[in-house]
Amino acid sequence: MNGGTVASGLSARLQQPTVLALGAIVLWGTLASFGVALSHVPPFLLTGLALLVGSLIALPLSNFRLAKWRVPLSTLGLGIYGLFGFHFLLFLALRHAPPVQANLVNYLWPLLMVVLAPLLLPGLTLKPVHIAAALLGFAGAALVILGGAPADPVGGQFGGWAWGYVPAMLSACVWASYSLLTKRVPAFPTAAIGGFALISGLLSLLCHALFEAPTALSARDVLLIAGMGLGPMGAAFFMWDRALKGGDARHIGILSYLTPLASTAMLIAINGRPFTWNIAVAATLIVGAALLGTRHQQG
What we know:
Blueprint: H1 3-14, H2 17-28, H3 31-37, H4 43-55, H5 58-61, H6 73-96, H7 99-106, H8 109-120, H9 128-147, H10 165-181, H11 193-211, H12 219-246, H13 249-255, H14 258-271, H15 277-294
Helix pairs in contact: 2-12, 2-14, 4-11, 4-12, 6-7, 6-10, 6-11, 7-9, 7-10, 8-9, 8-10, 8-13, 9-14, 9-15, 13-15
């Protein structure tokens, strides 16, 4: 086998939806670490700037022709609904509910993708194995997040109802439904995600101007925001779109349970947290769910 054949085969494999979905998941796994490093930056300002940076990725994808960003208004509305709606509701939840629990509720979106796929996409059926894999993966995600829950400095532990859980659940519904409904609208080029990110970023900056105090950014902040925009809030969206266009939504939804695991592993590596038993068990549950789902993705 010559070098050209090997390169061609590798290129073909890299286009597979599973690889693209895993690439997006790996990038999203860095989001929490970026968030910790930039926790002093107001959330809407952070989101707006990162999305604007992320939108620039669409320029080379469209050969620097903005005409390729043009989509029907309904499709544009769906894109804004997904990128802006998800982050708006998530940040609202994080302000009005304990962050760990709010994130746990938000991580229902992979489960919702698996369960809602037969309702929103024609030709798909939900088999018992899909439900089992989804629940197994969610158990792993819950163990990752709750296992690292900090104690409440007042009451010793988090508990009780907070109305912020409502937008947390809604944010999960938004991302799951957005991911599925992109397969229902007229076909659009992945480069159009740049338009979704651009308008969503501008809306986020508008929210910053209305609801947050002005903040000065350091050179380090700018570099980190650029990295955040190019990675988990940029390239990840484009890879996710390509994966959804060519893959099984139930399969990709189950693989998404790797996101909290990747995020936790990244935080451990950066902050020097110990590798605890709950993380090991969670890894087993999540990988098992992914394998179970991928072995039964047909039909």
